[in-house]
Design goal:
hydrolase activity; 8 strands; 290 residues; Rossmann fold; disordered N terminus; alpha/beta
């Protein structure tokens, strides 16, 4: 555990996600599980996670890179992992729950780091509560009504089948290319997710996973949002071969969010930011620190 920097108390600041304690807060009848690390006192960075993911699905290399200098909070939304309640059946409702969680913690301004489904939730949050978010990072995601987002169900189930037949983690297929580079990056990513050995989160329930998938399909078939309403500094990143949320949709976001920055990593898929974590983590930290 790092002992620097410190808060205003004598307690050392945790800057390793593998060691961050799991906490809970109850509001509106729902108990949300979350982990926080990094120095407090500044605007926090709230992490919005992907489909079927819990607190244990964040790449520690990215979280730790940002938590060196920023207060980071990752959370399980309603019905996910150790959080109570039912998984919402729409992205809009997920965004409402995220707002409830953030405001329950007492924050009036936050930065948001979002991946995949989390990026969809983040867009809805920003559009509805623009004053809450100062800066926005959208990775591996796309806009409401984006072309082929509604095909995610077929891609997901196919890759889960392929992973089952090869006794692999589905994320190795869903997030990474099936070439030498991608296979290596996938196995390294999955290994990093296991670095936390105590107080691990509950797995995503199958019913909740299916509900999330249906919500993404609905999002993909919905009327596009007015992204001109997103005026926050925005960093967009993806791999050049995203099969879950097509990479072209990152370019679409970039074109529609004025002043946004776009980074596309070569020879990588949905998990491009994880494959290139050694480049992306410092880039994200610099963007958030501006």
């Amino acid at each position: 555990m790092s002992t620097s920097p410190r808060n205003n108390s004598d307690e050392p600041v945790v800057t390793s996600y593998a060691l961050a304690p799991t906490r809970t807060i109850t509001t509106d009848g729902v108990t949300y599980a979350y982990r926080e690390l990094g120095p407090k006192g500044d605007i926090p960075v709230i992490f919005f996670v992907h489909l079927a993911a819990t607190l244990d699905n964040w790449d520690p290399r990215i979280v730790d890179g940002i938590a060196q200098n920023r207060h980071v909070i990752a959370f399980d939304n309603r019905g996910v992992g150790a959080s109570t309640g039912e998984v919402p059946d729409s992205v809009e409702a997920m965004a409402d729950d995220a707002y409830t969680f953030i405001t329950a913690l007492g924050f009036e301004t936050v930065d948001v780091f979002a991946f995949s489904l989390g990026g969809m939730v983040a867009q809805d949050l920003v559009i509805k509560h623009s004053q809450l978010v100062r800066k926005l990072i959208l990775t591996g995601t796309g806009p409401r009504g984006g072309k082929d987002i509604d095909k995610i169900m077929g891609v997901t189930y196919w890759d889960i089948l392929r992973a089952t037949l090869t006794r692999s983690d589905p994320k190795e297929f869903l997030f990474f290319n099936r070439n030498t580079t991608g296979r290596k990056a996938g196995k390294q990513f999955v290994a990093r997710l296991k670095e936390r050995t105590v107080d691990r989160d509950q797995d995503m329930a199958l019913r909740g996973f299916r509900t999330q998938l249906k919500a993404i399909v609905k999002y993909g078939r919905s009327t596009p949002s007015d992204l001109t309403l997103i005026t926050q500094p925005t960093l967009i990143a993806n791999g050049d071969n995203d099969r879950m949320v097509p990479s072209v949709l990152s370019e679409d976001l970039h074109q529609r969010i004025a002043g946004s920055e776009l980074v596309i990593y070569p020879d990588s898929g949905h998990g491009g930011i994880f494959q290139y974590h050694d480049e992306f983590a410092p880039l994200a930290a610099e963007f958030l620190g501006k």
